[in-house]
Fold these 4 entries.
Entry 1:
Amino acid sequence: MSVSLSHPRVTAGLTTATELSVVVPTFKERGNVAELVRRLDASLAGIAWEAIFVDDNSPDGTAAAVKEIANHDPRVRCLRRVGRRGLAGACIEGMLSSAAPFVAVIDADLQHDEKVLPLMLAKLKSGEADLVAATRYIAGGSAASFSEKRGAISRLATRLTHRLVGTPLSDPMSGFFMMRRDRFDEIAPRLSPAGFKILLDIAATAGSKLRIAEQAYAFGERFEGESKFNIQIGVEFLGLLLAKMTGDLVDPRFIFFAIVGSIGLIVHLTVLSASLALRPFDQAQVIATFVAMTSNFMLNNELTYRDRRLKGFALLRGFILFCIVCSVGVLANVDLASWLYGERQTWWVAGAVGAIMSVLWNYAMSTLFVWRAR
Ligand code: GDD
Ligand code: MN
């Protein structure tokens, strides 16, 4: 049997197995890939590594740029995903495609300092940890390159996370880490492909069995292109936290719907009390109902169903549908509550059951008909 000797990893007929897979999620990072490969090559000298770029069919031709490098460097490959978007999902699929004992995830834009990768690998190989998280928030780390606003958002999210879900991570928002592949393979089926927060999801899902160490690093400036972070990702993150708080029992979307509903109640009572000065009660109640319904609809469109946000004509059509759905909800609510009250139930039990019933109805119908999944 003959083995091609032109392959760089084949020496005298013996192949060196890849020790470390570096997974690089990309979306519109064409200008960064060559520089990243150059820097990995410099930092990982003496380590048998490979880079797996996972590109979500970027319109700027990132995948083609990676494949051009892969043509003459077999350590580099590209997994091009079509019809899908999402940082966490891309990382999961990249790591799943690895056969190496260790896998790392690093951003493509060179904000993560690749020079700490060998230190992280050493910690894993010593057996002291199953996962090493790179962190900006311990001695030796920093995040000076963040704008003031982004820095504030990141710190707030970090504090919220520490308050709401127990985690040993000092920088749970980090997207830079390395872990044993066997540990990853165990928990992969339980991870969520939505959102940005892959590290937090891994730590929360694996629980205390996963031994975590940390590695400080300085978060740098983006090399080329721009950040893909937006409000949608922030909202999704809040949803992830809420879901983890309830032990994944309640759909985060429902929690948002219920929060919007509670705000609606406050809006309703405020408008009602103001209108009562000018109108008789039944007219004031109609005005308050309409204002609250409108504000609920707009808030749900911006928050609860942000990923399916309606615009233009669809917004008007959705609003009319929402009003119909809520009207039926009110009728059902009053009907059920009156019946319960008639059965000699306490007034507030009857009232509460009716209200809960209409929230569930409104939520189910809104999800099915007003903000349909496309
Ligand atoms: N495949 C794929 N699909 N990759 C994506 C997607 C996507 O939908 N969205 C973003 N990426 C890639 C980017 O191309 C980049 O390589 C990496 O994910 C991080 O995205 P950035 O847009 O650079 O994020 P950031 O710099 O604003 O956010 C950074 O800081 C956060 C901490 O506050 C990242 O390191 C985040 O991971 C981190 O959570
Ligand atoms: Mn970045």
Entry 2:
Amino acid sequence: MIKGFIFDLDGVITDTAELHYEAWKKLSDGMGWHFDRELNEKLRGISRMDSIKVIMDHNHVILTDDAVVELATKKNDLYVDSLESMTPEDYLPGARELLTHLRQEGFLVALGSASKNAIKVLQQLNAMHYFDVIGDGNSVAKSKPAPDIFLYASEKLKLQPSNCVVFEDAEKGIDAAIAGGFHSVGIGPKERVGHAELRFNTMKEATYFEVRSFFSDFF
Ligand code: G6P
Ligand code: MG
């Protein structure tokens, strides 16, 4: 039986990818590093520290741990400043409708995000009230593709993974859901999330009706 839903944040509920891109780009430009949208795509779903390592590897840069933390903090300051401009108008189309519908139907809902800024983003969107449990980048040590964040969320919801559906836009996020034994819904192209049980190109198509029809054996 499906009793709960666990949502990734960035790329599922709202599109912060552009804001992350701008902050990493500014940092990289200042350092004389190459950074473009293709490289930004590789950062989808992974933690801040893993992200800076990907960028440094790409640029063949080696720095001390302290220097890496300092640069990641600098990027985060830029990113957090940019979140001030986010408003309740910034849900991805369809996301608010799905969250509202799931609550109306009495399902438990959790967040399962790698971001340490998840609460700030949810507050900017005025979305805190949709969630029974918030799992974010501060909740677990191992980030996606490890299933830990989703296991944290399901445990807090007091549900088994097989009773939960995970919504994810990242390849590594779907890997994490599968590794944890969760049902999975991918948001995005086949090349990225084609390994999910069910896939939609955008959240707009991910209506309660469609999700329920697909998982009808489990309701
Ligand atoms: C999400 C995004 C990633 C980001 C990560 C950490 O998973 O998809 O691109 O790197 O969160 O975000 P943070 O806000 O903690 O830097
Ligand atoms: Mg995401």
Entry 3:
Amino acid sequence: MGPLRGDLLKKELEIFTFGDLLNHFPFRHIDKTAVAKISDINFKTEYIQVAGRLQWFELVGEKQGRRLVAHIKDNTGELELVWFKGISYVEKILEVGVDYLLFGKIGFFNGKPQMAHPDLEIFLPQKAGGKIFLEPIYSTTEKLKARGLNAKAISKLTHQLFTQLQPKDIIENLPNDILKKLQLMERNVAYRAAHFPIDEQEFEFAIKRLKFEELFIAQVRLALVRIQRHKAFKGVLFVKVGDYFNNFYNNHLPFALTNAQKRVLKEIRTDTARGYQMNRLLQGDVGSGKTIVALLSMLIAADNGYQSCLMAPTEILAQQHYIGLTDLLKETGLTIRLLTGSTKIKERREILTGLLDDTIHFVVGTHALIEEVVQFKNLGFVVVDEQHRFGVAQRAALWKKAVVPPHVLVMTATPIPRTLAMTAYGDLDYSVMDELPPGRKPITTVTRNEMQRSKVMEFVKSEIELGRQAYFIYPLIEESEKVNYEDLTQGYEQVKSYFPEHQYTISMLHGKMKADLKETNMQRFVSGECQIMVATTVIEVGVNVPNASVMVIESAEKFGLSQLHQLRGRVGRGSEKSYCVLITGSKSSVESKERINIMCQTNDGFKIAEKDLELRGPGDIEGTRQSGALNFKLASIVDDKEILEMAKFEADKLLNNDIDLIEDKNLPLKNYLQSQKGKTGWSKIS
Ligand code: ADP
Ligand code: MG
């Protein structure tokens, strides 16, 4: 290939090497012996191969609309072909009266089928009707097509490459025992079959092997990061569980722990007793009781003479944690303080001094905790609550506050699907709390439309009359620059029209409010002074008002699934039966309808997370890191769950037995990993 086209391949498809070309997999195969009739084309036709004689071609249109149009005809009908780019090249090669074999995607233009930018070659009838030949179809770009590098040309290049390749050029990277056990195709065979399979079965076999390889290598890398960090970062050693913990556990714990809470606590205890830094992700559904697990861990830190901090994503949440924890700790003699952006200077100074001289044991706060000036005498335990709001760098900044890095417990706001956690957070140790405290009643969730509003309002009224409180949640419409609170303020007026001021008190909360006003308004709702809270999603995380039993979510179709679930988690926190009403507009998309349906069907955050992943794909899920971890060429964490589970199982097993990859059978893997060094951003994770 000449340098011009070579450069274009680099620019357009990032194909720099033979290896890149091999990894540019076809997105489908077509059976080249199957030639369809033109009359077979209908509205459902996508890609099709037809053969016919060229009738005429001509240039039509001006400037931007300029295009080359042609007609071919077989004995069943005519089909229009069109080119918008590369016109002069195509014009040169077309010849009226010649029979062509054409492959392409059918589009409809004014109701008439049309094939734009078809792959085309001269039709040789003797080729057709022979044995099945699956031709790979590659993605390409308009620019490449204009240079003659259409799908067919890329296929030719790839084919050419395979004629020159020796089996040893594609080196096996998986251990033999795994290949045998899982009956996986050898690597070089799999590459060839993925591009040029004999039949469909061989193709599927090849793809399975290559997907496994991708996921397995990713899991090995993640496990290596995890294990190497265990080795590299000496951690604070919590030698004992002492009086603070025992006294609290035996005398002040307000309830019995669930089995899940006990299990996770044990995992944390084991981690912190080993002398290596703990990096643990705690996944639990909304309301599963993560906070108490964090507190008990912090008590163990205190028993060993270490300070702890708990970082929350919003001021409101930090405040609530502070109030809740202060109450729990009141008999323990431990000191806890709150540090946020709005902490007054004098108090702030006091706190900074207290942290340095170790008179403060626990500090709860927001991002303010990350600032340089916040230094500790001996920070030993860090809790990051509602993880997805914090970046990796921010977490790392917290560790730096001690010579020996503190243990880190990251808690998610809502569950992440297992497959996603395995890939995006596979470098962290990982705990799941899949059990809610006893006595929780499922929240009844229904969907209503605008026409049913007065009924909804009547219902809310009846709940308030029973002494409960209600939330009204409005979406935030983010315009390019300023955040627009129109929906919220209009909503406030509307709520007021149903709940007149002489009878009801209504509080309002949104992100742009001054911190002290926010606090006052929140406090009025917490204390029960007002019955109704009108808010944006600032209320989303963590806020705990057990007496609130109804949540009305306006324009529910505008929210994501995990957000709806998190919002709904604000009710159903007390002993009363709770309700969530999703008000939807008439113009919901199919996908948003599906979201709403799932919400009405289940309260299970893990199920909801799975569905969210299915609907949106991994790229958009809140709380996933933008890392190389999810960029697979062939595999998908949505569709290939089983292969992923296998890959993780095998990767963990292999590294548990041979962490340094010194066994003979693991040498190919070791060599492969070394050859790939620097090609991904893996080392940067964590
Ligand atoms: P989340 O996991 O969403 O952060 P929280 O820690 O806020 O949940 O706990 C939710 C509520 O459940 C709190 O009111 C808490 O006191 C209560 N809770 C936690 N664990 C238990 C338990 N084992 N038994 C009863 N109530 C519990
Ligand atoms: Mg919480």
Entry 4:
Amino acid sequence: MPDTVTVSRRDDIGVIMLDNPPVNALSLHLRQPLMAALETLGTDPAVKAIVIACAGRTFVAGADITEFGTPRALQSPSLPEICAFLEKVRKPVVAAIHGTALGGGLELALACHFRVGDAGAKFGLPEVKLGLLPGSGGTVRLPRLVGPLKALSMIVSGTPIGAREALAEGLVDAVFADDLVGNAVAFARAKAMEGAPLVPVRDRDDRLGPVRADPSAFDAAAADLKRKSRKLEAPVACAQSVRNAVMLPFEEALAAERTFFIQLVLGEQSKAQRHLFFAEREAAKVPGVGADVKPREVRRAGVIGAGTMGGGIAMNFANAGIPVTVLEMSREALDRGMATIGRNYDISVKRGSLDEAGKAKRLSMFSGTTDYADLADCDIIIEAVFEEMAVKKDVFGKLDAIAKPGAVLASNTSYLDVNQIAQSTKRPRDVLGMHFFSPANVMKLLEIVRGKDTAPDVIATALAVARRIAKVPVVVGVCDGFVGNRMLAARSAELENLLLEGAAPEQVDKVFTDFGWPMGPFAMGDLAGLDIGWRNRKANGRTAAVADALCEAGRFGQKTGKGFYLYADGRTPTPDPEVAALIEAKAGERGVNRRTISDEEIAERTIYPMVNEGAKILEEGIAARASDIDIVWVNGYGFPVGEGGPMHWAEREGVKKIVARLDHWHGATGRDTFAVAPLLRRLAASGGSFASAREAAV
Ligand code: 3H9
């Protein structure tokens, strides 16, 4: 058994030091010696108080997620047993917290009599992000310290709070600037000397009483959260459990929390969200870019283009404290772009997520220019100009002439060939794609496109930059549309056909929102503006019968008050008989027989082709693993987290079933979208998983 717990004595104070790298998760091999240490020190009369602290970079960051669903998770002592034991210890127990006390880690601390932290410590219950609720008393103890409303917001958002706020909220009892363990020992000794009766958190009621008397504000907040959580079960369980903490006796509320936890941990949504947790970390491990490959230093960034995309990209750097030079063609365009950036920060200030000082600091990170020579001192330059190869090549030619040696040159292209772009420079090793998603200052996903010549340390630099600007990076290969847009195209192919054959936009959209998407594709198109796709289609000689006709009639979506829907109030979509008539007319022109289309058919004809395209992407090596594709779709396109991404979902749905239905639709329509990918067919025959297929291929 690894040596995960060390017990020492500082005179009359026992110190339990936990050491289970990398994040001190509460694995069985930590829980067992921890319980033994508590039993020994708890009954030793020479020990007057106990401090629990952690070695390494953080306090306990939670239960060991890899144990969930295995017998180890159930083996005694469980975390609830340890917490119950802690509350019975008849001498002060102090948790000394540095780094992050998360999930089960914070629950362990909540079962101690006191909590102290260092100034950088963070405290949170992020279980909801794993499709869970805190399962070891978090929902029952936290409201007793910080009040039910604050607890509700912390537990349902999963967002940690800092030490200063934790102190103000009563979550911690002291914050120390240095020598955490030394100060915690002194604090514990002082509490032992005081000899005041020890009141475990479970016995505190002062913060609960007022809400028990009038739960209306709490219930309103919980109802709001329930509405926003769409199909996710965990946020609803979190809110109910906090309410139980207020209304039920402690033990009853605790038992109800445990029941919720067990239901959720065995459920498909949590499995999907745990898959995403590990997938995100896996995506950062890139074949051929090992830990020995050091990223290049990035002290200043450059962005070409101050339009919606360029401005958003530049904001990411400013937000992370990295100075950024923005280049535009003219002073007017630059001023317009900078004004938009200023307005975006004003909105954040108005919403309260940023203060005036923060806004000023971010704005001070920007310099504007119309002269390429001013980008000469940038360590990374990202172009966000018009999506046309000739324009991109021209920009990269100019960059090649002025960028300093070793500067990383990135294109924010969403589908163009990065290898061709790289060839317009004399340094293709320094060139790659960095595909942001709109709005670029908000959306988490960053597709890092690796060209055939891109140097490993250039990929490492993009990954390191992504981390600094709080993006979720996925490295992908060169192809039309990369991972995300290529699969989107496969999905979109059938949308128009479904309309012509008899489905209504609102029916299709409802199938998507019932699946858990925040919005259906037609409502989404109206929001983004239908004219964008129209312009692109015209430039590339493509057509879309219904969408083109809508644009020709001046229906560009929300911005013109009508598109696939009518927007009487400017925001709420209502079905429009004019659109129904237009679709029927287009179907008539094409001789399409209209019929009733089932919801199931809509799902099959839109989601299955995405999975099919995903399989092609895997087979071609455009994505390194199926889970990378899931990360792209969840973080860039709003694929429901509770479904775990398209490839995870496909395995649950059944690859065999998907192949059979694709074959059916291929036979019925003859369309390429339904031609089954060889990998998918092999998996259907062998019963293997996407992960095993990849291992076999490696
Ligand atoms: C819970 O507590 C349930 C209880 O309520 C009830 C129980 C009965 N387990 O993120 P990083 C691994 S649920 C196992 O890259 P950072 C991670 O996979 C839990 N492994 O580092 C990675 O492995 P690898 C509630 C874990 O510095 C390595 O550690 N807690 C766990 O960027 C480094 O991780 C949470 O949800 C874990 N709990 O961020 C917190 N955590 O190197 C989850 C991490 O092989 N963790 N690993 O890829 C985090 O949010 C971040 O890891 C943390 C550090 C902020 C702690």
